[in-house]
Amino acid sequence: MKIIVPVDGSVYSNNAVSFITHRTSLIGKNPTIVLVNVQPHLPARALGLASPETLQIFYKEEFDKTLGSAREILQKAGMKYEEVTLVGNPADMIAQEAEKRNADLIVMGSHGHTAMEGLLFGSVTNGVLAQTKTPVLMLRGQEVPHVDHLKVGVAVDGSEFSTKAVKYMLTHRALFGQEAEYEVISAVYDEPNMFMMPAPGLSLMGLTKEKLQLLQQEKFAIATEPTKPLFEEAGVKAKEVLLIGNPGEEIGQYAARTGLDVLVLGSHGYGRFMSAVMGSTAMRIAHASNVPLLIVRN
Fold it and tell me: Could you report the average pLDDT of every consecutive run of 10 residues in the chain (298 residues)?
């Protein structure tokens, strides 16, 4: 497994490195770990005054200072790693490096969440998400899981996006530990008009509580059915969780309430705005919980 870990010297990126060192099952498969540090260009005035030799010394000192703690964490764990040092726009360079290396995963440390989309993950994380189709694991906040066997939830809705997320999760089970616990989570709305549009002359007033529950179960079955053969083929048992209400809000709150270590989400293509990148449901989930998110793009 090829893993890109962007490093900026912060506690968040150090936690991302630390998370990797605690993945015992993954380490046993000798993953390729690549630390990537990107320094921004100096202002044009400074570039004009400094000689090439001076710039080289400056950037080397900045690279060493920024990578120092990440190197120490990996060396202490006895893990091999590579380093890539670049100058330019961090989000652009990280996305390009992931594509060039055909990486399997980008692991990023990011601050928590706020009410503003632009500050939800931080500008670099947002920029990487907007430019790459490599799956991105975002470890949000300062606390990250340090046990090998994780409690993993995957949100499904019956779409090709969630099916792809399940496939990725099962293919890379070493990331979550040999004794990881898996939950397949889907939420359905609790209002009748979210299930169907009444035909002309047909009223939903006669929809009983029992019939509504049956409809909810049917919607849940449609959402989970495509993933069942995947789990069976992998020999993995998964708990099924039905939630009632707005999917984004309910899934995010459930993840926080039950102590999930990672929540896996499938998402459509990519674009410049977060709502386009992740989709409205994923954005709601991100707002509702600080649980680490593994975004698998289509």
Answer: 94 92 91 94 65 79 93 95 94 95 93 46 80 90 78 94 95 94 92 52 60 88 95 97 90 92 81 47 74 88
> What is the fold, at CATH topology level, of the domain defined by 1-144?
Rossmann fold (3.40.50)
Q: How far apart are CA 216 and CA 218, in angstroms?
A: 5
Cα–Cα distances in Å, from 116 out to 95, 111, 139, 170? 23, 13, 18, 33
Closest CA to 110 of 129, 133, 97: 129
Contact 265, 295 (CB under 8 A): yes
Question: Residues 6 or more apart from 206 whose CB is under 8 A from it?
Answer: none
Number of Cβ atoms within 10 Å of the Cβ of 107 = 25
3-state SS assignment for residue 35: strand
Maximum alpha-carbon separation in the chain = 81
- State pTM to two decimals: 0.86
Residue 36 · residue 97 · CB < 8 Å: yes
Q: Which two tokens stand for residue 239?
A: 């708990």
What is the reported pLDDT for 49? 60
Label the pairing between strands 293-297 and 136-140.
antiparallel
Residue 152, H or E segment: strand 151-155
pLDDT of 57:
83
On the question of a common fold for 1-144 and 147-298, the answer reads yes
Q: Percentage helix, strand, coil, to 5, in the chain?
A: 45, 20, 35
Both tokens of 115, joined, read 């009410």
Pairing type for strands 136-140 and 105-110 reads parallel
Q: Is the four-CA dihedral 173, 174, 175, 176 of positive or negative sign?
A: positive
**How do the domains of the chain map onto residue ranges?**
1-144, 147-298
- Whether the Cβ atoms of residue 20 and residue 83 lie closer than 8 Å to each other: no
> 147-298, what's its fold?
Rossmann fold (3.40.50)
3-state secondary structure of 66: helix
